[in-house]
Specification:
Tetracycline Repressor, domain 2; single chain
Length: 195
């Protein structure tokens, strides 16, 4: 008869996500994971597989969490510009109990070039963010809030690139004023687009 798990799988997966997010994939040892997750090594292997398989599950969880947050920032906003601003400002004003930066961006920099599975997950998540921005931009053009002088897919790619850069920068500076200026300057692009 199979033994029931003595831990909450979702909870320990969240702990693994935080460890990888703080330390990166390569610097995280199996001992770091076992200690940080609070489970036995055998239980970790039985439940999550090896380190790479666990990381892929963490990536799925993080991407789902990030997409949910992105969606929730747009909900209830009557202004598309405000919804986009909230997405950018959420990058600057991160939660105190979460590591700085973005696990997807970290993975893109650390693993994507030599790990096809990680690259696929990053690419899919990035595409989802870009598509979300494109939908908001189209909605803004249709409502008349935004000028029609730009192609939404191209502007979404531009904004997404700026957002990724901001996610890197928040890891290297504590200068909130500088980060806010970058957000403001980036979003002026929407004001200056030709009609």
């Amino acid at each position: 008869m199979a033994r029931s798990k003595e831990f909450d799988v979702d909870n320990v997966l969240g702990k693994a996500m935080t460890i990888f997010w703080q330390q990166g994939y390569e610097k995280t040892s199996m001992q770091d994971l076992v200690s940080g997750m609070g489970i036995h090594k055998r239980s970790m292997y039985d439940t999550f597989g090896d380190k790479h398989t666990l990381y892929m599950k963490v990536m799925d969880r993080y991407a789902e969490m990030a997409a949910g947050r992105l969606q929730s920032r747009a909900e209830g906003q009557t202004s598309v510009k405000e919804a986009i601003r909230l997405i950018f400002e959420a990058t600057v004003h991160t939660s105190a109990h979460e590591p700085k930066g973005c696990l997807l961006v970290n993975t893109a920099v650390e693993l994507a070039i030599h790990d096809p599975a990680a690259a696929d997950k990053v690419t899919a998540a990035f595409a989802g963010t870009e598509q979300h921005l494109e939908r908001l931009l189209r909605q803004g053009q249709e409502s008349g809030e935004l000028a029609r002088g730009f192609e939404p897919a191209e502007m979404a790619a531009y904004l997404h690139n700026a957002l990724m850069g901001l996610r890197v920068l928040v890891k290297t500076t504590g200068d909130a004023g500088k980060l806010q200026t970058i957000v403001d300057m980036t979003l002026k692009t929407l004001e200056q687009a030709p009609v």
